[in-house]
Specification:
alpha/beta; 6-stranded mixed sheet; 23 strands; about 35% helix; globular; binds 3,4-dihydroxybenzoic acid
């Protein structure tokens, strides 16, 4: 297929494979600087918009969406959370981010971030092709890489670019283009998954509740006044068919139950999904004229909601180095990308994995293991240093982070 004729050929500085938040934010940042980027995605816009994803943005990421002119909808429709609740041993413990580190987090679903970015691209005249097939990325070890794809109407197209960015998510095909003998994949599978639901019910709590219990983990999040998002730790082989609403509510209630009599507001379950759970990083994040960003290069377990935030940080750094490279500094400017992105990636990997271990139960854990976990949770909530650590990690680090 590589050199079969195509219906159209266009040339742009940057071609982006993947039009999720990472790919679209990158195209937006480049577009603001007058550099055109075309993005393609195998999914339709509708499919991306209706796939439930995480809901927490660091304050810095929220600010970037507003200040770079994507949209200020987050300020009107998002919810600023000044803390979270950790529940364990049947008791609630508030971690007050604002008081501890002067920062907060925003509850604003990833699907809304995507809608804002897709609308901004359309508003600014950016080109995004959704619903494409047979995407091929060619010649990445040359200065003239290409992306070929089939449009929904069956026509075949080629984008000639100076750089290609693989922002094609956790099942990335771009990352496989880095030769096997030159790439390293670090990762860990966990012996559990998350069962995620959307339920029609009023809010059960004003902020997020991360609950540890001897039965397993649960997370109580929100979406709107009348629709709530919740998760609970489940077996990785779980099937949504085995989980009627009654069983879901019984499980969730048992995991948040406590001496304070806390109960969740129940309602019809609108959607159920079993979410994959793993830690993964591929290095290098750049190969020739191609760079990887977001989930294509790294995946974190969902605990702590780092994934989207990390992806947005990647593309902030990547836009900066691409603009330098295209502005005359050449490919050498891209050498800065991985070191600048990777420090935050490993910090987030550590935090996500730490928070996962802190809150989940593992089959085969002994009563001793459980008490150790409760001891650690007590250390976190019972010391200012512990609370501050959690607050700092959860609300994010300064861009470029060293501090
Ligand atoms: C949500 C998801 C998370 O993984 C998390 O840590 C917090 C919130 C959510 O979907 O709302």
């Amino acid at each position: 297929m590589t050199d079969t004729p195509v219906d159209t050929v266009v040339s742009v500085p940057v071609a982006v494979v993947g039009a999720g938040p990472a790919g679209l934010m990158l195209a937006h940042l480049l577009g603001r600087a007058g550099v055109e980027a075309i993005a393609v995605d195998t999914r339709s816009r509708h499919e991306i918009e209706t796939t439930q994803r995480a809901g927490i943005l660091e304050a810095g990421a929220a600010r970037d969406l507003v200040e770079t002119g994507v949209s200020d909808r987050i300020l009107r429709e998002g919810h600023e959370h000044e803390g979270i609740e950790l529940r364990f041993g049947g008791r609630p413990h508030r971690i007050h981010f604002k008081e501890l580190v002067g920062a907060s987090a925003w509850l604003y679903p990833q699907t809304d971030v995507f809608v804002d970015l897709a609308d901004a691209r359309a508003r600014d005249g950016g080109t995004v092709h959704f619903g494409v097939k047979d995407t091929e990325v060619l010649d990445i070890t040359t200065d003239t890489p290409r992306v070929r794809y089939t449009a929904p109407d069956g026509s075949r197209h080629e984008i000639r670019a100076r750089y290609v960015v693989g922002a094609d998510g956790s099942r990335s095909m771009c990352r496989d283009l880095v030769p096997e003998e030159r790439r390293v994949r670090y990762g860990k599978e966990y012996p559990f998954a998350w069962f995620g639901i959307l339920a029609e019910a009023p809010r059960s709590a004003p902020e997020l509740v991360y609950a540890h219990s001897e039965h397993g983990f649960a997370l109580i999040s929100q979406r709107t006044e009348s629709v709530q998002r919740m998760y609970f730790q489940c077996d990785p082989g779980a099937s949504t068919d085995d989980w009627p609403d009654d069983r879901i509510w019984e499980t969730l209630q048992a995991r948040v139950a406590g001496r304070d009599g806390f109960r969740l507001h129940e309602g019809p379950v609108l959607e159920k999904t079993v979410l994959r759970f793993r830690s993964f990083v591929q290095e290098p994040m750049r190969w020739g004229s191609m760079a990887l960003a977001g989930d294509a290069a790294h995946t974190v377990p969902p605990t702590g909601a780092r994934g989207l935030n990390l992806a947005l940080h990647d593309v902030k750094v990547l836009a900066d180095v691409l603009l330098k490279a295209l502005g005359g500094a050449g490919g050498a400017a891209l050498d800065d990308y991985q070191p600048r992105a990777l420090q935050r990636i490993w910090r987030a990997q550590n935090f996500s994995s730490w928070m996962t271990r802190l809150l989940h139960t593992t089959a085969g854990a002994t009563p001793f293991d459980l008490r150790l976990q409760l001891g650690e949770l007590d250390n976190v909530v019972g010391t200012r240093a512990g609370r501050t650590y959690l607050a700092e990690q959860y609300t994010g680090w300064p861009a470029g982070c060293s501090g």
